[in-house]
Write a structure and sequence with these properties.
The complex is a heterotetramer. By secondary structure, chain A is mainly alpha-helical. Chain A has 3 helices and no strands. Chain D is mainly α. Chain D has 3 domains: about 130 residues; about 140 residues; about 200 residues, no CATH class. Chains in contact: A-C, A-D, B-C, C-D.
C-alpha cells in the first residue's frame, strides 16, 4: 500500500513540475494548453493520493473535488481551443 | 478455474504484443491495420474469456461478451474508415 | 501489483515529458490522448472508478477529438520551431524542478488528518439518500460546488461562441464517411447503445460509480459521434428551446434550492421524504445540460441541426 | 432568516443572468435592467444586515462544516459586496449607452456581467477553500469572454494569455488546497485555522502554492504582463468591471486568508516582507510603465497594476490601521478606477482613438468626461479630500509608527509617480489646439448616461474621503489570531 502510494505521489509531483516547465518554454498556445492540462492532472493525482490515506475507504471528498476539477479544466480548455482556432484564423487572414 | 484463466490472459497478451509489433514494423497502412485489428480483437477476446473464467460469474461473463462484441464492432468500422480514407487519398494522388 | 503501479506512474511521466517537448504538434496531441487514457487507468488503480469514467469520456475522449479537430482547423501545422531564450529555459527547468521537489516532499511528509470530512461523509451516507459516497458529496453535502460548476460550463460555452470559430459549421463531411454502407449501420447500433449507457450511468450514480457528469459525458460522446459522421451539423443561430436545455441543470438545481429555503431554513436542503426524487430530477437535468454543453463546446457552433442521413 | 440573504445575493444575479440569456434581449432589455436592480437591492439588504447584526453565517444544504459548505458574511465581505453593487450598477448604466444598438453584443454583455456579479458575490461570501477555487474559476470564465466582446485581434490574444495564466494560477492554488485538506481533513476556513499544524514543510509548501496562485490571478508583478492588454483592449464598461472588481477578488482572498486560516504562515517575517516588496515593486514598475503608454486606456490599465501593490503593503505592516488602509484602498481604487475607465472609454467613443498625444483641445467637446477623469485622478494620486487619500494616510500612519521607512518612501514615491502619469494625460487634454482633437472618424458624442455614470463614480471617489467612519465601522476590527 505505502509503496504504491508513493509512486503516484512522485508522479503527481513530476507532472506538476513538467506542466510548469512546459507552460513556460512552449511558445505555441496549443502546447501551452496541453501543459496546463498536464499540470492539472498532477494536482488531481495529488488529491487522489491524499484521498487514499483515509482509513476505511477512499475519501469521497477529494474524489468529488477532482471530478469538479476535471469538468472545469475540460470546459476551460475547450474555450481555450476556440481561442487558438480564432488566433490561427486571424493570422491566416494576414498571410493572404 | 484459475489456471486456465491465467493461461488465457497470458495468451491474450501475446496476441496484443504481436499486434503491436506488427503496427510498428509493417510497411504500409493496410498491413498495419491488418495486424492491429486481427491480433487485438483476438487478444481482447482471450482477455475477456480469461477474466470471465477467473470471476466465475455468468453476469460478468455476459457483460464481458458484450464488451468484446462492441469493441469488435468499433474496430471494424474504424478500420474500414481508415482504409477507405487512405485508399481515396491514394487515388486522388494518382489522378493529380 | 506494485510493478503495475510503478510502471503506470513511470509511463505517465514519460508520456507527459514527450508530449510537452516534441516539436511535432500532431504527435504531441496523440501522446496527450494516450496520456489521458493512462490517467483513466491510474484512476481505476487508485480506487476512483468515477474519475476513470469521467477521464475516459471527457478527458481523453471528448478533449482528444476536440484537440485533433482544432489541429485540422488550424490547417494541420506541423509544429512550432520558435525557441525560447536560454535564460527562460533555465528558469523554467529550475522552477519546474523546485516545484516538483517541493510538492514531492510535502506529499511525502504530509501528516494524516484524524478527522477528515470524508470520513464523516462516509458515516452519514444514509442521510444523503444515496449509497454512492461521491454522488452524496457532489449532489448533497457539497451540492453548492456542483451548482456553481454548471455556471462555469455555461460561461465557457458563451466564450466559445464569442470566439466565432465553430469547428463543425464549415467542415463538410469527410470523404471517407460519405457513400459507405458500414457507417449508417454502425451509427444505428452504437448511438442507441451509448444513449442507453449514458442514461443508465446517470441513474446508477445514486448507488454505484456514475452520475450526472459521467452519464452526461457519454451522452455527449454520442452527439459528437453523430457530428463526426455528419448526421448532426452545427447551426448558425441558437434557438430558445436549445438555450433552455443549456440552462436546465443550473435553473432546476438552484430553484429547487431556493424554493425549499422556507421549508428547511437552508439553501439546497431537502426534506427527507423528497430527497430521492429531487436528487433524481436534479441529476437528469444536470446531465442533459452537461451533454448539450459538451456537444456544443465540441462543434463550437451556436446551435445544432440534423445533417443529411 | 436574514442569513438566507447570503445565498440569495449569489443566486439573484446568477439567475438574472440566466434569464437574460434566455430572453435574448438587447441593450435596453427590461429583463437585464430589472436584474441589475434586483441584484443591487439584494446586495444592499445584505450589507445592511451585516451592519446591524455583525457577521452572518449560512450552512448550505443544512450540513455544518466540515461536511458541508459555509457561507460567511463579515465586514470585509460586506464592503466588497457593496463595492461590487455600487460600481456594478453605475457601470451598468454606462453599458446601456455603450451597447445601444448592438443587440447581440449587449445580450452577451448582460448575461456575462450578471453571472460575473453572482460569481463575485459567491467568492466574497465563501468560507470554504475548495468552493473558493470554483468561484475563482467562475469569475475568470465570466471575465475572459467579456474581454472578447471587443472582437479585435488584440483582444483574442489577450484573452488567450489571460486564460492560460488564470488556469495556471488556480491550479497552483488547488494544489495548495489539496495539501491543506490532507493535513486538516477539512476545507472550512475556520476549522482549518484550528487544525493547521504550526509549521513544517507541508504547511509551507501549501501556503506558497496558494499565495503564488493568487498572485498570478491578481496580476501582481512579475505576473502582471497579461493584465494591460486584456483590460486596455476590452470595451469600456468591461475594463471598468475588470479593473475595479475582478482583480480585487484574488487580492481580497489574500487578505481573507491572512485574516483566517493562514495568518501564522503569512505572518512569518520573510513571507510578509516578500509580499510587501512585491507590492512596492508593483507600485514603482506599474507607475513607470503607465507614464510611458501611448494610449489612454493602457495608462489606466498600468495604473491598476501599480495600485494593486498598495494592498500588499498591508502584509509587512499587519496592524489595525494598515488593515483599514488596505481595505479602504481596495474600495477607493475600485470606484476611482471605474470612473477613469468609463471616462477614457467616452473619449475613445467620441474620437475613435485614445492616443494620449493627440488628445489636445479635447477640453471643450468632452468637458464632463474629462472632468470625471480629473476628479477620479485626485483619488488615484491620493490627494485630500478623497478616498485614496484616507487609504494612503492610514497606510503611511502605520508605516511611520513602525518605522518602516521603505514603505513610507514607496507610498510617497508612488503618489508622485501617479501624479506624473495623470498630469501627462491632463497636459495633452487641456492643451489648446486650433482644430480640436484629432479624430479617426466622424465624432460620435457619448450618450448622457455614459457621461453621467462616469461623473457620478468620480464624485463618489471623492465622497469616500468623508465616509471613512461608517465604512470602517462596518469593516470592524482587524481579525487577529485566526478565526
Amino acid at each position: 500500500m505505502m509503496a504504491g502510494l508513493d509512486v503516484y505521489a512522485l508522479a503527481a509531483a513530476a507532472l506538476i513540475g513538467l506542466g510548469f516547465f512546459g507552460l513556460i518554454v512552449q511558445m505555441h498556445p496549443l502546447k501551452r494548453l496541453l501543459a496546463v492540462n498536464v499540470l492539472g492532472n498532477g494536482v488531481f493525482l495529488a488529491l487522489i493520493v491524499i484521498a487514499r490515506r483515509l482509513p476505511g475507504g477512499p475519501d469521497p471528498v477529494p474524489h468529488a473535488m477532482v471530478l469538479t476539477g476535471i469538468v472545469i479544466a475540460v470546459s476551460a480548455t475547450a474555450f481555450g481551443l476556440a481561442l487558438v482556432r480564432r488566433q490561427a484564423r486571424d493570422e491566416e487572414g494576414d498571410d493572404e | 478455474m484459475t489456471l486456465p484463466g491465467v493461461a488465457l490472459l497470458l495468451t491474450g497478451l501475446l496476441f496484443y504484443l504481436a499486434g503491436t509489433v506488427g503496427l510498428l514494423r509493417f510497411p504500409d497502412v493496410y498491413s498495419r491495420l491488418h495486424a492491429i485489428t486481427k491480433a487485438d480483437n483476438v487478444g481482447l477476446g482471450l482477455l475477456c474469456l480469461g477474466i470471465a473464467l477467473l470471476s466465475s460469474s455468468w453476469g460478468i461473463a455476459a457483460l464481458l461478451a458484450l464488451v468484446w462484441l462492441l469493441a469488435i464492432g468499433a474496430a471494424t468500422v474504424g478500420c474500414h474508415l481508415i482504409a477507405r480514407h487512405s485508399l481515396l487519398e491514394r487515388q486522388r494522388g494518382r489522378r493529380e | 501489483m506494485i510493478v503495475v503501479d510503478t510502471l503506470a506512474a513511470l509511463i505517465l511521466v514519460v508520456l507527459a515529458w514527450r508530449c510537452l517537448l516534441l516539436t511535432d504538434l500532431f504527435r504531441s496531441i496523440v501522446l496527450f490522448i494516450v496520456f489521458g487514457l493512462l490517467m483513466a487507468l491510474a484512476w481505476a488503480r487508485l480506487d476512483a472508478p468515477d474519475l476513470a469514467l469521467a477521464e475516459a469520456a471527457i478527458g481523453a475522449g471528448l478533449l482528444g477529438v476536440l484537440l485533433l479537430g482544432t489541429w485540422r482547423a488550424m490547417g494541420s501545422p506541423d509544429g512550432d520551431h520558435r525557441q525560447p531564450g536560454r535564460a527562460l529555459q533555465v528558469i523554467a527547468a529550475g522552477g519546474g524542478m523546485v516545484l516538483a521537489v517541493l510538492v514531492g516532499i510535502a506529499l511525502h511528509q504530509l501528516p494524516v488528518s484524524e478527522q477528515a470530512a470524508g470520513a464523516l461523509a462516509l458515516e452519514r451516507l444514509d442521510e444523503a439518500a444515496t449509497q454512492q459516497p461521491v454522488t452524496a458529496v457532489l449532489l448533497n453535502f457539497r451540492s453548492y460546488d456542483t451548482l456553481l460548476e454548471m455556471g462555469v460550463l455555461l460561461m465557457a460555452l458563451l466564450g466559445t461562441w464569442l470566439a466565432r470559430v465553430p469547428l463543425m459549421e464549415s467542415l463538410s463531411g469527410d470523404d471517407a464517411s460519405r457513400g459507405t454502407e458500414l457507417l449508417p449501420v454502425a451509427l444505428r447500433v452504437f448511438v442507441p447503445v451509448m444513449l442507453l449507457v449514458g442514461a443508465y450511468l446517470i441513474w446508477a450514480g445514486t448507488h454505484s460509480p456514475g452520475g450526472a457528469f459521467q452519464g452526461g459525458a457519454v451522452l455527449a460522446a454520442a452527439g459528437v459521434l453523430l457530428a463526426l459522421a455528419g448526421r448532426l451539423r452545427g447551426d448558425t443561430g441558437d434557438s430558445l428551446p436549445l438555450r433552455m436545455l443549456l440552462v436546465l441543470g443550473l435553473t432546476v438545481f438552484s430553484l429547487a434550492g431556493l424554493l425549499l429555503i422556507p421549508l428547511q431554513g437552508a439553501f439546497m436542503a431537502y426534506p427527507p421524504t423528497l430527497i430521492y426524487p429531487v436528487m433524481l430530477i436534479v441529476e437528469y437535468s444536470l446531465a442533459v445540460s452537461i451533454a448539450i454543453t459538451l456537444v456544443l463546446l465540441y462543434t463550437g457552433s451556436r446551435g445544432l441541426r440534423r445533417g443529411p442521413a | 432568516m436574514s442569513d438566507a440573504l447570503l445565498p440569495l445575493s449569489v443566486f439573484v444575479p446568477l439567475l438574472a443572468g440566466v434569464c437574460v440569456f434566455l430572453s435574448g434581449g438587447g441593450a435596453r432589455s427590461p429583463v437585464a435592467l430589472s436584474g441589475v436592480l434586483l441584484s443591487l437591492a439584494i446586495s444592499l439588504l445584505l450589507v445592511m444586515a451585516v451592519g446591524s447584526q455583525g457577521t452572518l453565517d449560512h450552512a448550505l444544504a443544512g450540513w455544518e462544516p466540515p461536511l458541508g459548505i459555509r457561507l460567511h458574511a463579515d465586514g470585509l465581505a460586506a464592503l466588497m459586496i457593496l463595492l461590487t453593487a455600487v460600481v456594478g450598477a453605475l457601470v451598468s448604466l454606462h453599458a446601456v449607452g455603450q451597447f445601444a444598438g448592438k443587440s447581440e453584443i449587449a445580450n452577451r454583455f448582460w448575461t456575462l456581467w450578471l453571472l460575473l456579479w453572482g460569481s463575485l458575490n459567491a467568492l466574497f461570501l465563501s468560507a470554504d477553500l475548495f468552493n473558493v477555487y470554483v468561484t475563482l474559476e467562475l469569475v475568470t470564465l465570466a471575465a475572459i469572454p467579456l474581454v472578447l466582446l471587443a472582437g479585435s485581434r488584440q483582444s483574442v490574444s489577450a484573452s488567450l494569455n489571460y486564460l492560460l495564466l488564470a488556469l495556471f494560477g488556480s491550479l497552483l492554488y488547488l494544489g495548495g488546497v489539496a495539501l491543506i485538506y490532507g493535513m486538516t481533513g477539512t476545507l472550512d476556513l475556520q476549522l482549518i485555522g484550528e487544525r493547521l499544524p504550526a509549521g513544517g514543510w507541508p504547511v509551507g509548501v501549501a501556503t506558497a502554492l496558494i499565495v503564488a496562485g493568487l498572485l498570478v490571478k491578481a496580476a501582481i508583478v512579475p505576473f502582471h504582463f497579461w493584465l494591460p492588454p486584456a483590460h486596455g483592449g476590452a470595451p469600456a464598461p468591461v475594463s471598468a468591471l475588470l479593473s475595479a472588481l475582478v482583480v480585487k477578488a484574488a487580492v481580497y482572498l489574500l487578505l481573507r486568508l491572512w485574516a483566517g486560516p493562514l495568518q501564522l504562515p503569512l505572518s512569518a517575517p520573510w513571507v510578509a516582507q516578500l509580499l510587501g516588496a512585491l507590492g512596492a515593486a508593483a507600485i514603482i514598475l506599474g507607475s513607470i510603465q503607465a507614464m510611458r503608454q501611448p494610449r489612454l486606456k493602457l495608462v489606466v490599465a498600468y495604473s491598476t497594476v501599480a495600485q494593486l501593490g498598495y494592498i500588499l503593503l498591508f502584509f509587512p505592516l499587519a496592524v489595525a490601521s494598515a488593515w483599514q488602509g488596505a481595505v479602504y484602498h481596495g474600495l477607493a481604487h475600485g470606484v476611482a478606477k471605474a470612473a477613469l475607465f468609463l471616462a477614457a472609454g467616452n473619449m475613445l467613443y467620441h474620437l475613435g482613438h485614445d492616443r494620449v498625444a493627440e488628445l489636445r483641445g479635447m477640453g471643450r467637446p468632452l468637458a464632463l468626461s474629462l472632468g470625471a477623469f480629473a476628479i477620479a485622478s485626485v483619488s488615484i494620486m491620493g490627494l485630500p479630500p478623497s478616498g485614496g487619500f484616507i487609504a494612503k494616510w492610514l497606510l503611511l500612519q502605520s508605516a511611520l509608527e513602525q518605522g518602516l521607512w521603505w514603505i513610507v518612501a514607496t507610498v510617497l514615491v508612488g503618489g508622485l509617480l501617479a501624479a506624473g502619469y495623470v498630469f501627462r494625460v491632463m497636459r495633452y487634454a487641456f492643451m489648446e489646439a486650433h482644430a480640436g482633437p484629432s479624430v479617426d472618424r466622424a465624432p460620435t458624442p457619448a450618450q448622457p448616461l455614459m457621461v453621467w455614470s462616469a461623473l457620478t463614480l468620480a464624485v463618489l471617489s471623492i465622497v469616500l474621503g468623508f465616509t471613512a467612519r461608517p465604512l470602517l465601522t462596518l469593516l470592524g476590527e482587524i481579525p487577529l489570531g485566526g478565526g
